Amino acid sequence: MVITLENHHVDMSHNMLGMIDDIVIEDSLKVAFSSDGIPIASIMTRDVITIDHTQTAHDAATIMMEKKIGSVIVTAYGKPFGIVTERDLARIMATMDISSRCLILSYLASRPLICASPTQTIQEASNIMGKHNIDHLPIFEKNKIVGMVTTRDLAMCLLYA
Asked: Is residue 7 scored above 60 in pLDDT?
């Protein structure tokens, strides 16, 4: 049996899920590749794992554990609309008395999906992540996810710079 946090219908349109309006791409191409910044494309992870919105928190946790990653992008009808992180899962499971096998990702995914473009600088990515208090920043190009930058990536970049 699957329990949702509110009425849920798997065949929701992508507009009902807020996919189009919930993606926020912070982009400033005018400073891309400037002499004072390195583009985030140079440090981003290119293999981004996605999971369908109809899957459960347990499914997301299993994938994260198997792949040794801290987040998955939640998709609906093939389009990204949110993200679930280890922190999200820990918080929800600590505060709710519901099995992780019963929590549907379409209700757990953090939205809006805060993103950046691969041409933005490492400094800009850091600023976006700090402003929104996020540790995982999906990278979009032409409305497609092409990478992910994490606070660990930023730290490693600073360490070896």
From this structure: no
Question: What is the amino acid identity at position 49?
Answer: I
What is the C-alpha to C-alpha distance for residues 115 and 98, in angstroms, rounded to an integer? 30
CB 107 within 8 A of CB 118: no
CATH class of 23-159: alpha beta
Non-local CB neighbours of 138 within 8 Å, separated by 6+ positions: 48, 73, 80, 83, 113, 114, 115, 116, 145, 147, 148
- In the three-class reduction of DSSP (H, G, I as helix; E, B as strand; rest coil), residue 129 is classed as helix
pLDDT tens digits for 30-66?
333 333 588 999 999 999 999 999 999 999 999 999 9
Domain boundaries, the chain: 23-159
